[in-house]
Specification:
alpha+beta, 6-stranded antiparallel β-sheet
Length: about 170
């Protein structure tokens, strides 16, 4: 049985190499593709022109690889211990994603490196799988994270407002 565990909400010192996070699925729709074309200006014809795409080796329009990646990063939820994107290495588009494909994400912790007393860098192997289990996309994503639980709690305490009592009129 596969357990969905898509929230990475622990600090660096608590995350273990080898741990795998898994998401539920999300179907990428026609609307997603058109909105992404409009948002990014990526009107490349393999994504936006039905007639052109029908003449290619794929026979139909494809989902933008960068849209797939963006959706992947939303299917795995990163909590506030994440402080910055440190880099993406080895991003590969392995199998095309088609409109109406459903993708699922696995995210495996493959490396940890202490940066200093307060921060560490964690590298994740991110994979998007389609509904048939084909790996569509993979990359190594490194993120700067707070190291200690107490630093995370202090950040949250300082950044989340508390309700003020109402002033009596």
């Amino acid at each position: 049985m596969t357990i969905l565990d898509n929230r990475i909400d622990m600090p660096f010192d608590e995350i273990e190499v080898g741990r795998v996070f898994r998401s539920g699925g999300r179907t990428i729709t026609e609307t997603d593709v058109v909105n992404y074309c409009a948002l990014t200006g990526n009107w490349i014809e393999i994504h936006s022109n039905v007639h052109y795409a029908s003449q290619t080796r794929f026979g139909e329009r494809l989902v933008q690889g960068s849209l797939t990646y963006s959706i992947m990063t939303g299917l795995i939820t990163f909590g506030p211990s994440i402080q910055a994107n440190y880099g993406i290495d080895g991003l590969r588009y392995i199998t095309p994603v088609h409109i109406n494909d459903t993708i699922y994400v696995t995210c495996e912790v493959i490396n940890k490196k202490e940066k200093d007393e307060k921060y560490g860098v964690v590298t994740f192997l991110m994979k998007a799988l389609n509904q048939d289990g084909d790996v569509c996309q993979k990359s190594e994503w490194s993120l700067l994270m707070l190291r200690k639980r107490e630093d995370l709690e202090a950040l949250l305490s300082a950044s989340i407002p508390t309700e003020k009592p109402r002033k009596k009129a």
